[in-house]
Amino acid sequence: EGSSGEDEEGEAEARLSRHEARSKQLAEKLSELEHAQLAEKPWQLRGEVSGQQRPANSLLETVLDFDQPGAAAKAAMAPSEESTRSIEEVIRARCKDGLWDDVVRRAALKPTDFRPKPADLSLEKSDKGLGDEYAAAFETNVLGSKGADAVAKAHEEARALLAKLDSRLDPLFSFHYAPPPAKREVTIRTEAPAVSLEEKVPTALAASSTLAPEEVYGRKRSDKALADRAELSQGERKALRSKKKRVHKRRTAESAEQRTLRAEAQPGGAAARRQEADRVGEQLAE
Predict the structure, then answer these.
(1) Which of 185, 166, 186, 184 is nearest to 174 (CA)?
(2) 3-state secondary structure at position 45
(3) Helical (H) or strand (E) element with 135
């Protein structure tokens, strides 16, 4: 029975395709790796382990020196007698054969290849001053104006010569000479007022500086309110006292009217009871 089961398994594996066999091998390998990962690790691979967590004297039997991957390639070759002897033999053989491995120059260098070229400096005095150059640079960079180039100047000169030639040819081909039309000149006029010669105040002086403080800021408070009581006259003191009486009388009347309105709105409220108490007090006083 055991041999028949093995034969059936062998026949089943023989019937598998190459892809199915490869997938089966990968599945078995993955299962082995999973079991290895889930199985209990030895104490060497568990990080920091104390003496109570590992067998006795197990550290003496463990080899702690191991090669890190990639460390051998990065580490420099340690000098030894054999390596030094092999290098010296190579040097002697090359000196004997004359193999210096020098780079042979294919073409000779020109004497002016690596010399700096002289700067193009003009020794002629400029017609423009430094201020004119700054003004032209400001107009070009900031204002965006395009300066007159050589081509534009040549066009202007050509137009002037053509106009002069036309003015001389017109009398020869016509008995009635027709003068050229006049060019319209554009003039810019500013709407700024002309300076008056009779004005004594400087034009740059602001209008507010020529006025009094009262005219600029205005009178917000009267002079009597700012003055001390001792500085007022008798009439001013009487007027101030009568003003205070009028204000007090108006405020008293307003408060009495408000109490009356509250008493009418709420007959059983506190305002109504207070008004009734005041009326009773006035009657008793009489």
Answers:
(1) 166
(2) helix
(3) helix 130-138
Tokens of 68: 């890190």
> What residue has token string 């030895």?
42
265 vs 183, 256, 273, 274, 278, CA distance in Å?
A: 91, 14, 13, 14, 18
pTM here? 0.22
- Which phi-psi region, left, alpha or beta, contains residue 176 (left: φ > 0; alpha: ψ -120 to 50)? beta
Q: Could you list the pLDDT tens digit for every one of the 286 residues in the chain?
A: 445 656 677 677 777 888 888 998 999 999 999 998 888 888 888 888 888 888 888 888 887 776 666 555 555 667 778 878 888 888 888 888 888 777 777 777 776 666 666 667 777 777 778 888 888 888 888 877 766 677 788 888 999 999 888 888 877 776 666 666 777 776 766 665 555 444 555 555 555 566 666 666 655 555 555 667 777 888 888 988 999 999 999 999 998 888 888 888 877 777 778 878 888 888 887 7
For tokens 């008793």, name the residue. 284
Q: How many CA atoms lie within 13 A of 24 on its CB side?
A: 9
**Token pair in block for residue 230:** 């001792």
Q: Is 124 helix (H, G, I), strand (E, B) or coil?
A: coil
Question: How many Å apart are CA 34 and CA 29, to the nearest integer?
Answer: 9
For the chain, give percent helix, strand, coil, nearest 5: 55, 0, 45
End-to-end CA distance of the chain: 139
Residue type present at position 206:
A
Quickly tell me which residue has 């070759």 as its tokens. Answer: 77
